[in-house]
């Protein structure tokens, strides 16, 4: 008897879900990824006029919705820049005119060269350390394909939820999801890496007609800067397991 009720309620979830917004030329000036409209201005998701998003090559950048080869005009600056008082300091090396700079030392903000002159142009190189990644704290609209899936004898529609994603400097991540009447509000927690990949899990519960349905969520995805992210969203329901190709864009 309880199984029959559960099947009927899963079908109700499908009918109560909010239809996803389609990505078309009428609604999207950028590009489409998993039926979600993205800006189409990043190297990892480039395009325009609602065409499918493409990933530019490593030597290219995204300009006006198209992948373009980077120009070498102007050259590239070496780490540390030019030290006006102490010659050219490259990555904390020796300053040629003002005496030897201590290896790994600062070339600006009080880092004195051996000759007594302050190197002012290059700024602090901090020993060549990599810059810290930008931490995201944004709300996204999440689309997915397929638009609906079958669970036993009923169809379950993707609810097109909103998701508040917050990264923390210690490597943690939380995602507060509002799935509406179909899946309710719940929180995913996990961790992220310097490459933008993250994994978060959590449990939600829909209470339909007094009958609770427990849903275990597992999200494995990658941030395309703070503008968008995409990946796989798995939902383990009491009666079946559903896997969605999810794509999210900042609201």
Can you put this structure into words, describing what you see?
- The relative contact order is 0.16.
- This protein is mainly beta and 251 residues long.
- The longest helix has 15 residues, at 2-16.
- The protein has 2 helices and 19 strands.
- The radius of gyration is 25 Å and the shape is globular.
- The chain has helices at residues 2-16, 180-183, and strands at 31-33, 36-38, 41-42, 45-46, 51-52, 60-63, 66-69, 82-83, 87-88, 137-145, 148-151, 154-157, 162-167, 172-178, 185-192, 197-208, 211-224, 228-236, 241-250.
- It has a single domain (2-68, 133-250), classed as Lipocalin (Beta Barrel), CATH 2.40.128.
- The chain has an 8-stranded antiparallel β-barrel. The chain has a 3-stranded mixed sheet with strand order 2-1-5, with no helix packed on it.
**What is the CATH class?**
Mainly Beta
Side-by-side strand order of the widest sheet: 10-13-14-15-16-17-18-19
Structural class: mainly beta
Helix content: under 10%
* Tally of separate helices: 2
Task: Provide the gyration radius in Å.
Answer: 25 Å
Give the beta-strand count.
19
Pattern of helices and strands: HEEEEEEEEEEEEEEHEEEEE
Kindly state the mean pLDDT as a whole number?
73
């Amino acid at each position: 008897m309880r199984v029959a009720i559960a099947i009927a309620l899963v079908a109700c979830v499908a009918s109560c879900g909010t239809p996803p917004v389609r990505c078309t030329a009428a609604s999207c000036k950028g590009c489409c990824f998993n039926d979600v409209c993205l800006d189409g201005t990043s190297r990892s998701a480039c395009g325009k006029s609602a065409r499918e998003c493409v990933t530019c090559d490593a030597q290219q950048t995204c300009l006006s919705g198209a992948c373009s080869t980077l120009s070498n005009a102007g050259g590239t600056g070496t780490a540390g820049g030019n030290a006006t008082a102490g010659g050219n300091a490259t990555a904390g090396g020796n300053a040629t005119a003002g005496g030897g700079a201590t290896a790994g030392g600062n070339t600006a903000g009080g880092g004195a060269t051996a000759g007594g002159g302050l190197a002012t142009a290059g700024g602090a190189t901090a020993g060549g350390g990599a810059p810290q990644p930008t931490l995201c704290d944004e709300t996204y609209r999440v689309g997915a394909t397929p638009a609906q899936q079958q669970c036993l004898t009923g169809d379950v529609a993707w609810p097109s939820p909103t998701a508040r994603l917050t990264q923390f400097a210690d490597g943690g991540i939380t995602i507060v999801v509002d799935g509406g009447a179909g899946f309710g509000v719940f929180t995913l927690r996990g961790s992220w890496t310097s490459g933008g990949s993250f994994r978060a899990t959590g449990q939600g519960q829909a209470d339909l007609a007094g009958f609770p349905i427990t849903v275990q969520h597992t999200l494995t995805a990658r941030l395309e800067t703070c503008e968008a992210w995409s990946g796989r969203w798995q939902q383990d329901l009491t009666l079946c397991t559903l896997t969605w190709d999810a794509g999210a864009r900042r609201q």
